[in-house]
Design goal:
Elements: E1 4-7, H1 18-23, E2 26-42, E3 47-64, H2 67-77, E4 87-94, E5 99-106, E6 117-119
Antiparallel strand pairs: 1-3, 2-3, 2-6, 4-5
């Protein structure tokens, strides 16, 4: 069973929704990265998305007391069960830990179009100041 979640945006420590992770029983967070994905910024909503590609995305590997409980809450937050889904959850390999983790990948059939995605070549997402 996969025990970790890789986050790259608003769920990272010190970002807008990280407090929700703490409420979900967060045990630890470690810097990590994934390869084979490209990072984008979505305007005007001011949040990130990843799509399969050739890039590297930097974020954090989160571990929870109860991964099943955390995934239910995260799936709800990320709109996995909406019709159409906003994001879907996908297995990724987080490095340098070399562990499998869950990551939330944008569903391009869910209403977000490519013209709204601004590439983040550095692989490090930062919210835009309003």
């Amino acid at each position: 069973m996969i025990e970790y979640v890789f986050v790259y945006g608003t769920l990272k420590p010190a970002y807008r929704f990280h407090y929700l992770c703490q409420d979900m029983g967060l045990v630890s967070s470690q810097k990590a990265f994934i390869q084979g994905f490209n990072l984008f910024h979505i305007d005007p909503e001011n949040y990130p998305a990843i799509i399969a590609g050739s890039g590297t995305v930097y974020g954090y590997l989160l571990e929870f007391e109860d991964i099943t409980k955390a995934l239910v809450a995260l799936d709800d937050l990320e709109g996995v069960d909406k019709n159409p889904a906003h994001y879907f959850r996908e297995k990724v390999k987080a490095k340098p830990q070399n562990v499998e983790a869950w990551a939330y990948v944008i569903n391009l059939a869910g209403g977000i179009t490519m013209d709204r995605l601004e590439p983040v070549p550095s692989g490090i997402w930062q919210p835009k100041t309003l």
